[in-house]
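Lecture 7 notes: from sequence to structure.

We start with a single chain of 130 residues. Read the sequence below before looking at the structure.
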Amino acid sequence: MKGDYLRYLAQIKTGMRGKDAGKSALLAYKYARSIALAELAPSNPIRLGLALNFAVFYSDILKLPDRAFRLAKQAYDEAKRSLVGWGRSPSEKAGCFWHIFLKISAFRLNRTSMQRTTHKSAEEETWSLG
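Now the structure, written as tokens:
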């Protein structure tokens, strides 16, 4: 949530305030992602939501649609692999719900991949922390 809040600030603020909010959002997203990868299953809704929000940050704030696509696709692929063998009945570990969620995510990924144009290299990142 902290990353999302700071992303919203980065969208509306200008100059150094916007840039500072963007840098803080990047740190918050990276920290949250490290915890999610260590503590949550790939199909966990919080982990998936974080990945998608972080992807939006990369796309909309940092203007790195390729990196956004890779992050979202990685989360999608990991979640899909973790659900193999779950069965398809709605009562079986809510597998049906996640199957639908993954289909929606796949649609968004496909749409995003078609909309991508040129990408910036890592050296061109506006908000590099290095």
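The longest helix spans residues 15-39. Keep this in mind for problem set 3.
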